Records
---
Amino acid sequence: MPIINLFDSIKSFLKTPQCADCRVTLDEGVAKFCVECRMILRQRTWQAISEVSTEVLVYAACDFNRVFKKQLYGYKYYGQSHGQWLSDLLIDYCRQDFSTVPAEQTLLVMIPPHNDAQDQERLMRLASALANAKGWLLSSSVLNWQVECKPQHTILGRKERFENLSGAFSVADINFSSIKRIIILDDLITTGATMVSAAEAIKAQVCRQGRSTIQVEGLALARVPFMPIMGGTSTVVRSDKVLLPV
Ligand SMILES: [Zn+2]
């Protein structure tokens, strides 16, 4: 093969769109994933996860599976540029949200990461894109850790996870008088203990301000399955046996 043709072949190979997960060649250059990976990544319906809490409505955009994990971990731990895709995922999921609360009275807040400014910044970028798309207000400083808690992924029981996070958050002294709905954003949700603890802290603060009409909801990028195992002890079931920060 003449060398010029070889270069052309390499160039066209490099330009060939590939699935962002399995690297299979894509026919069209528009989609990020192949049909199979898109099937795995299927968006969840806007339906509160009833096992988490009957008092706090908690939603997750998709299930935590191998395709999602690769994208999230690439973004969080390897500095890969999947932030756009992750924020698009959230924005697209929230198209199913038809709340009657006006956008300008909806506040998006974040679960603060443990001592990790970079983590905070990454979640903030996603939150910011979502808040912009929905016209919601955004604050990164509403919730703060107020007690030392064990990392949730080191605790396997559901009850113990809720106990570990009871009273974990303090809420900044913010006047919520113009707010009717607060959505707490986190990347992953397993038992929902973090979300519920954060929601309770916000509700307590709102109560102290003499308000009782604020809706507090939780929103996660993905839901990690949490299932009881035989013998009555609960544990986290993950297909790859890798424990994750939750
Ligand atoms: Zn694929």
---
Amino acid sequence: MADTISSTAILLLVALVFIPAQTAARTILYTVDQNPNSISSPSPSPSPSPSPSPSPNSICESMVELQGYVCQQHQVTTKDGYILGLQRIPVGRSGKTADKPPVLLQHGIFSDAVTWLFNSPEESLAFILADNGYDVWLANTRGTISSRRHQSLSPNDPDYWNWSWDELAAYDLPAFFQYVHDQTGQKLHYVGHSLGTLMAFAAFSQDQLVNNLRSAALLSPIAYLNRIPSLLTKAAAELFLGEEIYWLGLHEFIPKGQQVAKLLENICNKPGINCNNLLTVFTGSNCCVNNSKINVFLDHEPQSTATKNLIHLAQMIRGGTIAKFDYGNKEENIKQYGQPTPPIYNMSSIPNETPLFLSYGGKDQLSDVKDVQVLLEKLKDHDQDKLVVQLVENYAHLDFVFGVNANKVVYDPLMAFFRLH
Ligand SMILES: *[C@@H]1O[C@H](CO)[C@@H](O)[C@H](O)[C@H]1NC(C)=O
Ligand SMILES: *[C@@H]1O[C@H](CO)[C@@H](O)[C@H](O)[C@H]1NC(C)=O
Ligand SMILES: *[C@@H]1O[C@H](CO)[C@@H](O)[C@H](O)[C@H]1NC(C)=O
């Protein structure tokens, strides 16, 4: 029984959360199709544990320079000691030096900078921005392939994985902002997808980073999560929280790991669970993603995250709040925060004059329309000329970054917004 619960939980969480969740699910579906009754060799590329530490240059080499663009590899150290990699595309294909401000692109969970480089140069936001004269900076949060170093910890140490998106907002994002600002001497535009929006909302609501910010584009915005329509997703969050101690013990959550694959396979054999529908159930039906490219993506993704990060997200799905990590008891919360419940991030505290471009999808099952409405209600006092909201009726979660028509549908209006600020 315990196995069943774990399986359900993990299956749903892998599938549920953000960008390359799709990839994870596809990996598993592929396996299930090949081997309907077997749980051996579950993944095309099972990750060893400890995970590999590939060359931090690999994104520049394999994703940017290959397309004919200049790419620089940079690194920055956070206040809590993580050494993070950034890639910079300083000029477009024309070779003309950027004449527009820097843009920092922040990926979502289970992903990294590859998010913005996945499609052709005409379709991928990072290349489009570079070709339009922006100085493009690609962030990679702690634990991803470019950002697995630390001043004193190794990814093999449990302590390395003791973080959730609280720390991404409090340490990683400020380190990126400061670094890009220092390097360029300019305020920056920001683009976040999914968890990359949550990190920004959390920071901005505490009046952080806004001094170095020109404007922010938030795609598939995630702040409130408890109107996620899928009952399975909600049930998964509950089950995951029910086994919090067990999962926290895993520290690093490796989506391509054997353990996760085995559990997924297990649950896909349960009656009543239709794994063929998982992608749609969890990310929504992505109208415009080029499926034939998914194998390219699999070579690089999905990336690890901290199990604690997933538990924090599950808390949001259960609670409907946007608050710091809940340690689950008064004593520990008081020790951490000086109060019995975790402090709330107040979305109404985002400075009203901060220019925000929000784009959300009518078919997105993670950034659900009703949850976005709750967020917009919190932003009702925002300066009207500083807030642009776009609803793309036929878009689901992944269309915002992988959609082959996102250049016209989302990125053109996004750049028009940047030009105003
Ligand atoms: C994780 O970090 C918190 C503080 O952020 C600390 O109180 C706690 O003891 C750490 N947990 C472990 C297992 O090291
Ligand atoms: C989809 O991807 C394949 C393989 O990379 C490519 O040949 C094709 O042109 C892509 N289609 C579109 C519409 O981008
Ligand atoms: C959130 O911030 C708004 C604006 O600063 C304030 O009016 C409101 O009382 C705050 N809400 C909470 C729960 O602190």
---
Amino acid sequence: MAKQDLREVINRQILSGHLVEVSQPVDVVHELASVAHAAEERLGVGTVFRNLGGYPDVSVLSGMFVTYQAAADALEVELSQLKRSILEALADPLAPSHHQKDALDREVFAGQDVDLQTVPIPTHAPRDAGPYVTAGIVASRDPETRRMNYSYHRMLRLDRNHLSIMINPGRHLDDYRLAAEGTDQSLPVAVFIGVHPAIMIAAAMRYPGDELEIAGRLLGEPIETVPCGQYDLRVPLFSEYTLKGSVDLAQRVVEGPMGEFSGLYGAKSEEYLLEIDSISHRPQPIYQTILPAGVEHKVIGASLPREPVLLKSALSVSPEVKDVYIPPYGSGLLAVVVFDPRYEGQAKNVGMAALAAYTTIKSVIVVNSDIDISKAEELFWAVLTRADLQGDLALLPRFLGHPMDPAAVRGLVTKSVIDATVLPGSPSLDRVAYEHPADLDRYFAAG
Ligand SMILES: Cc1cc2nc3c(=O)[nH]c(=O)nc-3n(C[C@H](O)[C@H](O)[C@H](O)COP(=O)(O)O)c2cc1C
């Protein structure tokens, strides 16, 4: 089996307990999502559904990135090295390799045979408008530089051969749409679903080059790509599904609501229309989905792709910054920086650098390295016992924030940095610490 094949990763993750197979029959309308969500929330695992009503020989994967440990194992890096390895991949990208034609067996449906009903797109959250493609990565080409671009866009199935596609301002795909609008009727794209986790992370990053370069370095070998028939586009060789088509630049459709990473439903909105010309998939394909508003949505949408950027920015102020964390429970609005300051005020400078690194971050909390940032209660404890908000809280009113922040007014938010650190020698570092016996089980053994 090949290293770039998602199937190999799935097998490994099942063996290590990060993914659980579900062989009971499930309906893709709501039932699949409610089982996957319960598995995520209660068991901390992702799911591979093997028995889908109406879709013989197809599996659905949900929750590849339910925990950081699962992400690290999927990428075959130590958990402690996860962020640094993404940062290193950004600094030293590796170009993809090109096959002249498709090198894998694939079933292809084109023209009148295109039917999106044959793809097991789940209807997820209770009030979602319908079946949404949530883990689809859109391949597009910059009309000027001719470089490839890869990004996620939510897509609602409308009928046999149409999806809506949400293209937010500021995305590269939106730049290409604008560039094409004056001269062309449509913008060709290919949507691929079900790929190696390194490609998933790379496509979630804002990157001025071809995102597969980041994935290549993360994997340690060039990502193999294949061409897309009449379209001048390239997709990863091992993609499970590929939908080819074009965005109609003249039409808009209303779509939504859909659960968003804010934990709320994104409202109905006017989006673009994507017409699908062909659907291809590997034999016994694995369709991949990301639960809207679930943990994975936040980990892949807000945490993993942004932490390396924040880390780089904070490190530029002090090389002694130890870690950054964008906790999924903060919906991408909160960042934590781990830093032991030597001088008064230094932690706020570091916090400001992290805050400035990404527009969507609303609040940064800086803590000493004795705080276990994986625990929200430790963070609260640090803020309450080590910060005096009169002096340790910096408020920055009327900054551009996250477009989906429900507390924003006309897109503007008050940003903040909380310095919850103390200087070396502070009595606050002298915490009560019990030593736990290494052989604890012995104390609770029967008899
Ligand atoms: C699961 C997921 C869903 C996303 N949905 C959308 C979307 O519907 N519309 C959009 O414009 N961006 C969406 N994004 C964000 C972009 O895909 C992301 O910012 C990407 O890095 C844009 O890259 P680019 O502008 O460098 O091409 C989503 C991201 C993730 C991870």
